[in-house]
# Entry
Amino acid sequence: MSKNNPTLEITLLAMKLMAKFGSLPKLLQVRWTGQLTDGMFQSALASFILFSPERQPDAVKAALAFAVVLLPYSIVGPYVGIFLDRFSRKRVVQLANLFRAFDLLVIAYLIYKGSTGIVLTLFVLISFGANRLILAGLSAGLPLLVNKKELVSANALAVTGGTIAVVIGGGLGIALKSILDVSNTGDFVDGVLILISAGGYLLAALFAMRFSKAEIGPQPHEVPQEIRGFGEVLQGFNILKKHGDALRGIFGTGVQRGGITALTLMALLLERNTFNDPSDPDAGLRGFAYALAIAGIGIGLGALAGPYGVAKFGRHKWMRISMIAPIGFLIVFGLFPNEFMMIATAFFVGGFGQSFKITSDALVQSKIADEFRGRIFAFYDVAVNGAIVSGAMIAALTLPPGGASLVLPWLIAISYTITALVLLRKSKFSTDSGSTK
# Structure
């Protein structure tokens, strides 16, 4: 059926899920609720830190913010992955959401008080770390809920729906801020938005209760009995090294996400300081939200294109195509850094990037047995986090205060080209087709 009508695969899968009300909708409920809340939380943070009149942003500060919230998890991530292969992922996801809800109560209080110091940074760091643990656990558990042939479509629903939920949540946050700003101070409004976000994470924790103990893994017979601690981390790495295409797909996703991060910082500065009056940060925030919304549409269409591309070209070739396709837009954007080209570039880079991501996720899920999958997805997160921080740092070194730059989009285009032609070259990328299953 999907071979004859590949573009309908996601729609038909969604209809089937609604009709059967199986286990995957429960995972989608937890993931999408959390990521909708992520969008609102992140919009409140962006408003407080980057779009406040008294806090002038620059690329270095923004890049340091990425580093502060992502790098610490990158250090502990491989060890955190052990929990996902040793303990009930349902309980890990549930407790992490509860912990995150409590953490946001503290953040809301700190923002209400106007705190911008190390204490606020610490609690934001904890929240982002819990979020990565939740997403890794849900990605590791997804293959237990669908057939192997449906992995690409299931990832398109889960990952892309979550990304779109983040965009919607950000838009809701900005809309609520515009309404509440009429009669309240900015810091008070941002604190209220974060309180609402705490309720969203509590709701995600309640949804996670609907899973049975081992429904998203690990199964009782899969829990390691002999190897413990750092040996479990090494065991996961050794498994991944045996599957070169999965490992290359992970690093390819990192390169792609690093490029998107750099473009996001460029768009932020352009909207804040060039396309709008720097003395009117709310106009910059609205323009940035509009660009993110267009990128979200591209992400949704990219997800729809993923199953079709895999069916027509094969998984490995489609990933190379997805990496190469947006390069022309990056080159033109570097030459003409206007608002139209920025939005067009965001649309195509986001769309093909999401198609690459869901295909890479399915590749890893199909190659790695469930007993190792928690550690592998924790490593996946670490690799992508490191690339995101690298992309942010490169942006900080190359972007002027106004954001307009020829160098940065061209550097991203070069990195995508090298990744497609060298890291993902056919002679290496598709030779390992083994599986631990």
